[in-house]
Design a protein that fits this description.
This protein is α+β, with helices and mostly antiparallel strands. It has 16 helices and 38 strands. The strands form 10 sheets. Strands 15, 16, 17, 22, 25, 26, 34, 37 and 38 form a 9-stranded mixed beta sheet that branches. Strands 1-5-4-3-6-13-14 form a 7-stranded mixed beta sheet, with helices on both faces. The protein has a 4-stranded parallel beta sheet with strand order 8-7-11-12, with helices on both faces.
Length: 697
Amino acid sequence: MPQHEPRNSRPELRSAELLFVVQKCTIAAMAKYLGVDTGGTFTDFILFDDVSRSVRIHKVLSTPHAPEQAIKRGIRELGIEGDQLSTVHGSTVATNAVLEGKGVRTAYITNRGLADVLRIGRQAREELYNLTPEKKPPIIEPELCVEVDSRLSADGEHLEKLDDEALAKLKQQLRALAPRAVAINLLFSFFDDTEERKIEQAICEMAAEGAEETIFISRSSDVLPEYKEYERGMATTLNAMVGPLMQGYLTRLGEYLADRFSVSDLSIMQSSGGTTSAEQAGRYPVNLLLSGPAGGLKGAQYVAAQSTDQLLSFDMGGTSTDVSIIDREIGFTTGAKIGGHPVAVPMVDMHTIGAGGGSIAQVDAGGLLLVGPESAGASPGPACYGNGGVLPTVTDANVVLGRLLPESFLGGDMSLDKSAAIKAVTTIAQALGLSVEEAARGIIDVVNDHMVRALRVMSVERGEDPKDFTLVSFGGAGGLQVWALADELEMEAAMVPVNAGILSALGMLVAESSRERSRTINRRLSHCEDSMLDQVYEELEAHAKQELGSEQADFEARVEVRRTADVRYLGQSNALNLDWHGLDQLAQAFHQKHKDSYGHDLDIDIELVNVRVRVIRQHHSFEQPAWQASQQLHEHVTDMPGFEEQVPVINRDGLSVDQRITGPALITETSSTIWLSAGWYAVVDRLGNLMLRRCPQ
């Protein structure tokens, strides 16, 4: 039964406990396991104790300038120093560096005549009807682009090789440029990476000579050995630009953990929804750009597994909202964009918008109410935080409307300043000629509209009916908006998991270790052989297993391998990803999937573009126990604008299984608040999740 920790003397810092049943395994056995999700506003913690079989949750304000400081603070206040600790971390360091354009000075090495590839990009316009688009600065300045006399044909034949003289010249150029990182991207290097390796060796020799600082090297044949030189080059460049930053951050965090724990292990959440070692994360930071959101999807899939496997999820945090669809399995994509840059590495398939609890509301010159994408962040944060913020936010609007109670925020351990919220929202009210309450409702309506459109992008625009799915809400701000979004989408069911405010951190703990590897083939199926492709798959698997740490004695017993292939009709630009079961089945499956996706199939040759391998290693098996109320049920009432009668306020920890709450009602817990409007009711399932339904007409 959950036991609450004594109230912390610092108002925003508090832990709560709940029970999980965990099946102990022999891999990297530790006394405690910590999931850490660093968000734009809060850093979330979930701590599993292997001895007591208990889990504690914790929140602290994030420190964006130095994310490790918030982690240190949280660990210190959890009081776990000196123990054995295994940490899984969802990091935003790489993401923020890309979004803010604050990567290290990076040189880009490519074939002669191809230095402008990254600057030219693709011909598709992001704004189709904007005839005068703003020119974006190049990701690499022209003076940092170095061309070398090397050429490989499309058939893998060496037409021109680098000699000692060319490599000596390259060294001289790099010394003059003095980069902290180098991205190497040669044409068709996915067929033969000999020339890229020559360049890598030459750079290593420079460092060995002692004339330069250590240079981070990112090689395209290692980062993304696939066709499309632009996308491959962009992934390789982003990897190089943030690599030193990520390695420095992980080194500092790792040293801190090593100093304070008798045994420590640090893993990082990848964009693909699997974890990797800190060493691998530092080497391939481009794989971490959706680290936190991927953890949220793993957490949502986990908590909803016993109720449904068809989920439409939205993770509403302080800065942004991430929307995704889970149809039995989490979807993946290699066509994502981060900060406007294509990132062709495997990622969970989601749509992100700049709308969260900290999103700033303003009135433009034309008198239109706008919300986001700018955010108040963690410092100073929304006005109601009392940290000096004066701009109105979504959180302030919820405080004004009485949906966030100042005395109940974070379980009562962080007090909100309602007068500051009213003062901030008043600026919007005056600009629009509305009452403060009307302005607050307007802010909520606008941000809800943003999220509804995002949910439609992931469902309706893909041919899926939202009514066939359950809307699962998580993130600290999600519970306040969930019913409105479900209502607008005419969905019949929604779900707010236990401790929804830290679900991404839970996802870190339940995630498996994984490694993804790929290779371009670019051959017609009729020119391929099963034996040749099986050999390629085996090589990729061996590489992935090595990186996962196959030295573990029981590694093979806990490993799962998934083989897929990217296939298209000859002449097409885009491919469909299919499971690999041999060439004959692949052809049949492709024709059928093409017909299902586009309404027709074709009687023309099929081309095998890429082969992919995902190797997954299981760690722990979590089994959430049947829900038991951990506190006495406390119910009081509060006044809310627009309601003639007072609205009930109910503590979630006091609810029993099958208990029903009919809206309007506020349901409070440590990590979030749920607003249940009239016309909806909530029932507690056997695991403690709140299942929201429409009231019968």
